[in-house]
Amino acid sequence: MTAEQTAFRPAGHVSDERILVLDFGSQYAQLIARRVREQNVYCEIVRHSITAEQVRRHNPRGLILSGGPSSVYEAGSPKCDPKLFEMGLPVLGICYGMQLACYSLGGQVEHTPAREYGRARCEVSHESELFAGLPTDIDVWMSHGDQVSQVHGDFVPLARTNTCPIAAVRHSQLPVYGLQFHPEVTHTPLGGKILNNFLRLVCGCTGTWHLGDFARETVEDVRKRVGERGRVICGLSGGVDSAVTAALLYQAIGPRLSCILVDNGLLRKDEKEAIISEFTSHFRTDLHVVEAESLFLSRLDGIVDPQEKRRRIGHAFIECFTQEANRIEGAGFLAQGTLYPDVIESGAAPDGPAATIKLHHNVGGLPDKLGFELIEPLRDLFKDEVRKLGVELGLPEDIVWRHPFPGPGLAVRCLGPVNRHRLDVLREADAISVSEIKAAGLYRQTAQAFAVLLPVSSVGVMGDARTYENTIVLRCVNTDDFMTADWTRLPYDLLARISTRVINEVKGVNRVCYDISTKPPATIEWE
Length: 527
Fold this sequence. Notes:
Low-confidence stretches: 1-14, 347-368
CATH architecture of the largest domain: 3-Layer(aba) Sandwich
CATH superfamily of the largest domain: HUPs
Helix content: 25-40%
Number of strands: 19
Structural class: alpha/beta
Largest sheet: 9 strands, mixed
Strand content: 15-25%
Distance between the termini: 34 Å
Shape: globular
CATH topology of the largest domain: Rossmann fold
Strand order of the largest sheet: 3-2-4-5-10-9-8-6-7
CATH class of the largest domain: Alpha Beta
Number of helices: 14
């Protein structure tokens, strides 16, 4: 296997109704696309520098200009092709996108002395298609330090907040609209309705695209890409992402799929045994298990920096994976269950780029020459869409609804040094916490729940004796998209049972805390 690494993402997904999102480096550009797809309208993320001619080849019904961290009046700030506004296509600018549209069409944008970050009350002052069927006062989510201070005479202000006199606009001659707030986030409760109005009332979409179309077209794309004799290897972690990836590939190429599980010693309790059972009985795949716990723990010895942990785990994973793959005759492709939140948090957005939040071992850990071509069929999907796709593919419920698990495994939940003893403590605490949440019937009502081991010891009293032992933090969140999240309000009696069991049953723990941070500003994982 000597071919240069090629990231393959499925092409096509043809739909008569398509929206393009121009990405200006926003952390939430893909979230816009997700909200559009929720309306059964196909949506793609494209470069902010895409030309008008390239847009024509996509044949979209409309364009959405994303937010971004730049200021439109600064030299070198990202701009779009000005001819886009002359095409007659409906355009919706969001935050930076609104500022850019107004600026490009003769308006002024300035740094505002009263920045808006968080919820705001927005007063709709003029009727328009965007706000059709909505009340005149709505809650919105703001996140901006600049704002449109003056619009060209052809623009009509539509809404305002206490500190933002021009919170929404429309052009009187062109189908150009702008929103200073973010309709794509759940913190704008009626944001979905606003986007729906843009899609249907402005762009004329009726909603003809469905996730099942994605599955069928992806299977066909992979089949064509791999050919009649190619063999694909797929890394398994036990999570829903790799499971759905494997199911898609199995539909495309059948027995020419080989799966590899790298037992890195960083898996959850009993996870290796569960993976082996699932992927030899349900999938009946060609499963290879690599025993690599000693290698990974030696590479992590003395490492406490989370980014360095991820780098080392990524390099060790690729090393083990490629060694095993070289033993599989005819393997020329690698499939990964990479999702878009992994890509964008790794700073890999095609335009901007978005700020790097953290490295993901299956995004940032790949060397320049991997030795086989890369297939990432889920790269444009969010977690909830992957679950729906799993249902479409007929996967068992326990696989589809399994909580996410990070690629670097327990290493990024074991803060500080990583060794076998500390991992065993964390494994037991995590297993108890999750089992109690399941017993309470709340596992499906939460998006992710897990334990974290802190590099902090605290004084306690057990059996009339002084202890100085470990601290466990329980993290449990609710989220639709994993780009924003809120902490789960678990019942106090459930938290009490978890705490009591962990302290009594896990030797070396004398304190349990509960994480009540939201994302943002925190991330879901601690590292």
